[in-house]
Amino acid sequence: TAGKLCIVGGHSESFIQPAIAYDAATKAGVGVARVLMPQSLFKTLKKSYPLAEYASANRSGSFATNALSELLMGAHWADAVHLAGDFGKNSETIAMLDNFVGKYSGILAVSHDAADYFCRQPTALLTRPQTLLVLTLDQLRTLGASLKTPYAFTSDMALVPLVEQLHELSVKFPRLLV
Asked: What is the spatial distance between Cα 21 and Cα 145, in angstroms, rounded to a whole number?
């Protein structure tokens, strides 16, 4: 009854963020969690991480374009999807994630390097409901610049102005939770 979560991330050189997300979800009491990683990690993880599922990978070890169908199947199974990170900077993977966000309408959490991309190109997230961005201050600063907000998020700002600016951002973009 605690829900189903599809955690997505990783590339041939890193899978830490999806593993951390899985452990955190399990400790928090998620009903069932699945982790979807690129096929390039199968040989590395098949014995130590047998619960992982794998989708098509490209030559660089990141998710391939045709991994979209596998990601959509995982999303259809789940109550929510977490784009956990460690995707790398592969343009094919970024395009696949952008397509996924356009096709998936359920609860979506985005963090780490997936958030980096969507902070620079936020239009795909602005109109979709039930979206949570988990951001660092640098990512929040990038998001503010991309959205052309009249204020800047800085590291030396006091708590009250930060809260006021976050409130203003959530009023202007009510579907985008930060």
From this structure: 28
